[in-house]
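Predict the 3D structure for this chain.
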Amino acid sequence: MAKLTLDDLRKLRDAKRAEIRQRETSDKPVLVIVGMGTCGIAAGAKETFDAFVDALAKNKVNNVRVQQTGCMGLCHSEPTVEVQMPGMPTVIYGLVGPDVARKIVDNHLLHQTLVNEHVFDKPAADIMREG
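Done. Predicted structure below.
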């Protein structure tokens, strides 16, 4: 096994700090929740979670917090992800692998358009009200 240099350790520390900052809740109005119950993890939710964190970092998006939750009760469509964003309906996406996670970052979070082929649930337009 190769030994880590001091520079390697610093890079690892900086990467982990960036990942932790992504989970902080202060001043982040947009929320991405990844279902990480047993069924979600078995379906690849950890890789999905990591893809969100990586895509947000690569796009220098700082107003989104990514967090995990337990089972969302949608085992047939795991991995599942809920996106809460001001000005848009809360959406639950299903069958979200890493590629779809990157697409959600690009379409939904950056350009405010839904990734319709993976929308599992959203409120009907006739019951949505302005707050």
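The chain has one domain: 28-127.
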